[in-house]
Specification:
Elements: E1 2-6, E2 12-16, E3 19-24, E4 31-35, E5 40-43, E6 51-52, E7 62-67, E8 71-76, E9 85-90, E10 96-99, E11 112-118, E12 121-126, E13 129-133, E14 140-143, E15 152-158, E16 161-166, E17 169-173, E18 179-182
Antiparallel strand pairs: 1-2, 3-4, 4-5, 5-6, 7-8, 8-9, 9-10, 11-12, 12-13, 13-14, 15-16, 16-17, 17-18
Length: 196
């Protein structure tokens, strides 16, 4: 799993990085690829090497992507040199908006694994629970202690609720923002949730 980048002379060079997430472009022309060290890449069908699209990102470790009608939302991990952030990038790269949470805690996580949207908020599955982020106001809310485990692997929005896969079972956040455990006897990790 390696990503190609552009060297100073314009020649492609290979940089070790793991792909972490993928999202389609709004116009259907290609795919955004999140990586664990090369930032955000964009690839069109038939391309030999992806183009780097990391302008405006908080860091180069992309944990999750969420497509929008005119671009993509990119959630990056906290590193030694960058705080975690959620950034909107327009498809034409003319607009960049980063949400970094409050001054004291930021977004409250180190690693983000998945992201979904529900009722004007993003919900991020992270290493310390679920972070709810309201882009319009920049406010954040944290769900951790009420989950079966704070290590969350996936989040999916469905019918007014957010389903959460954790290291020790399944839960949901209801439309009233309360947390309910689903299938309490199941205590294995949940890495993916199918809603169809």
């Amino acid at each position: 799993r390696r990503c190609a980048g552009q060297g100073r002379e314009g020649r492609a060079r290979v940089r070790p990085a793991q792909f972490t997430s993928v999202a389609p472009s709004p116009d259907g022309a290609g795919w955004y690829l999140g990586t664990s060290g090369a930032g955000l890449l964009f690839v069109r069908p038939g391309d030999v090497a992806p183009e780097r699209r990391s302008f405006g990102l908080a860091g180069d470790r992309v944990g999750a992507l969420y497509p929008s009608t005119e671009g993509v939302w990119v959630a990056t991990d906290r590193t030694e040199i960058a705080d975690a952030g959620v950034t909107y990038l327009s498809a034409d790269l003319t607009t960049s908006q980063t949400l970094a949470g409050g001054a004291a805690l930021g977004l409250g996580y180190t690693t983000v694994r998945r992201m979904t949207a529900m009722k004007r908020s993003f919900f991020l599955a992270t290493d310390v629970g679920v972070t709810q982020l309201e882009p319009a106001s920049g406010r954040t809310f944290f769900f951790g202690s009420t989950l079966p485990d704070t290590r969350t692997y996936t989040v999916v929005g469905r019918r007014g609720a957010v389903l959460i896969g954790t290291a020790r079972g399944l839960a949901r956040i209801t439309d009233t923002l309360s947390v309910e455990r689903l299938a309490p006897g199941f205590i294995d990790p949940v890495y993916a949730i199918e809603t169809e």
